[in-house]
């Protein structure tokens, strides 16, 4: 009999706290490390981290893979399909191209997770961006930033540089 324990995660450090608003990364990180240690000594259990991929965090898949490697935990990638504005297929096409290039250059093709990443890239490009969903993603992000007193652009600066020309002044800080 095998037991599988999966912890759902959306990022690490301040990105985790942004996506899981009001959660504390330091507490979660300590618990992950404790659980990883406990499961390493278990013969019939597996501990994995499930990274839920959306437009908010797709750029940072390499970050969670490195984190999983560092703590000795397998990472499983899960896609958001609904609401549709959080579906990665609704990213602008040029943004998709940059994501693909970034991930292909940042993760070793021999890594056990590479096939999953490649499948996500294929899925992402199967459909063209629905501009209304993209606008809804930007608007929803802005609304959350306003009431939370946060800025997506500051917490996800690398990806914001990629998308800023496609934000139609909704997320812009300038």
Spell out the blueprint of helices and strands:
Blueprint: E1 3-9, H1 13-19, H2 25-40, E2 45-53, H3 61-71, E3 74-79, H4 93-106, H5 114-125, H6 131-148, H7 152-155, H8 157-163
Parallel strand pairs: 1-2, 2-3
Helix pairs in contact: 4-5
Question: Could you characterize what this model shows?
Answer:
The chain is an alpha/beta fold. The chain has 8 helices and 3 strands. It has helices spanning 13-19, 25-40, 61-71, 93-106, 114-125, 131-148, 152-155, 157-163; strands at residues 3-9, 45-53, 74-79. A 3-stranded parallel sheet has the order 1-2-3. Helix 4 runs antiparallel to helix 5 (114-125). The radius of gyration is 17 Å and the shape is globular.
Task: Indicate the low-confidence ranges by residue numbers.
Answer: none
Strand order of the largest sheet: 1-2-3
Range of strand content:
5-15%
Radius of gyration: 17 Å
Whole-Å distance between the termini?
Answer: 57 Å
Helix content: 40-55%
Q: Which sequence of SSEs, written as H and E, runs from N to C?
A: EHHEHEHHHHH
Structure summary, number of beta strands:
3
| Shape designation | globular
Q: What do the pLDDT scores average to? A: 89
Question: What class would the helix/strand composition place it in?
Answer: alpha/beta
Largest sheet: 3 strands, parallel
H/I helix tally: 8
Concise overview:
The protein is an alpha/beta fold. The chain is 51% helix and 13% strand. The protein is built from eight helices and three strands; from the N terminus they run βααβαβααααα.
């Amino acid at each position: 009999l095998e037991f599988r324990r999966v912890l759902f995660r959306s990022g690490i450090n301040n990105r985790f706290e942004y996506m899981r608003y009001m959660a504390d990364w330091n507490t979660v990180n300590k618990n992950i490390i404790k659980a990883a240690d406990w499961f390493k000594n278990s013969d019939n259990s597996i501990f994995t981290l499930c990274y839920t991929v959306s437009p908010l965090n797709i750029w940072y898949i390499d970050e969670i893979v490195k984190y999983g490697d560092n703590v000795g935990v397998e990472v499983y990638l899960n896609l958001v399909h609904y609401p549709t504005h959080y579906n990665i297929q609704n990213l602008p096409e040029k943004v998709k191209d940059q994501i693909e290039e970034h991930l292909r250059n940042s993760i070793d093709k021999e890594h056990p997770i590479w096939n999953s990443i490649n499948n996500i890239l294929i899925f992402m490009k199967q459909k063209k961006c629905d501009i209304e969903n993209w606008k809804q993603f930007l608007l929803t992000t802005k609304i959350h930033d306003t009431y939370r007193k946060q800025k997506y652009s500051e917490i996800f600066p690398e990806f914001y540089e990629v998308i800023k020309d496609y934000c139609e002044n909704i997320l812009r800080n300038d």
